[in-house]
Amino acid sequence: MKIKHLSLARFTTNLTLLFFVxxxxxxxxWMSDEFLKWNILPDWIDKYAxxxxxxxxxxxxxLVVSSFxxxxxxxxxxxxxxxxxxxxxxxFLTRQKVIILAILLMISLSLFFTFHKIDKYREANRLDEIxxxxxxxxxERREILTQALSEIxxxxxxxxxxxxxxxxxxxxxxSHYIELTKLLGxxxxxxxxxxxxxxxxxxxxxxxxEKISVGGKRNYEHYNxxxxxxxxxxxxxQQAFIRLQDKTEQEIVTALxxxxxxxxxxxxxxxxxxxxxxxxxxxxxxxxxxIAIIFFEDILEGYHFESIRKDIFHPGPLKLISN
Length: 323
Prior knowledge:
single chain; 323 residues; 8 helices
């Protein structure tokens, strides 16, 4: 059967124009919906808009190539006719063949949508499984940290608590400063997975709070009254706050210093507290007066994607642990 290239060239050119129009229209609508935030597309179209644009663009490219080849063949046949070379031509585009072509096109589009739907379904199931796993590990680790915190708050000696109450604990090179640095470093090093430990103390004006954490090891000198001693230990980090940026965190911290529990009903990733990781917080007291909030936090490796962690949190401690 001889293909009638002129008819095929017209057909592919018309289809190319149609797909280009659909591609251009879809692209404009998608850009308006995505970047201008115009909610003009129905939800069922909006979900697959990018896929539809890709499909129309892909078919338009194939049709451009087909049309170019057909026009090239038309030119070749015209040249052959001028040279006196002729051949018998058969009709190419019959109604049955157009129907078959349309059916094949519909099947191709259906397969694209089907595979896309299957991929999305399997990805959603996999994500759900990971989220359940993450929530389970978060609760499990939080229970371990809660038990550990009861032991930790009892480790602070009376002298340190008094220095924290007098707000003299942060005088560098002082014995209390070094003792606190050593204690916080020991807490991190002595528990599995080396969880982070932070303290939040009330500060002198114009500051409201002072956050204390321990970092890596360093060498420093300590004067014991007779001679300087070179000591290797952890480094203490300090961060003063005029106020906490997050309103919810500010309310919770205020309640904690009043020895009240304010449960969380959403994710909080504040400057001190974080309930999107395994964590627990309690109180340090000196002579029945609250002098600091202690925050104990672990990091679960392999769950850093926002799609996994989104809306997964714990409400905070059910009861306040204190020394």
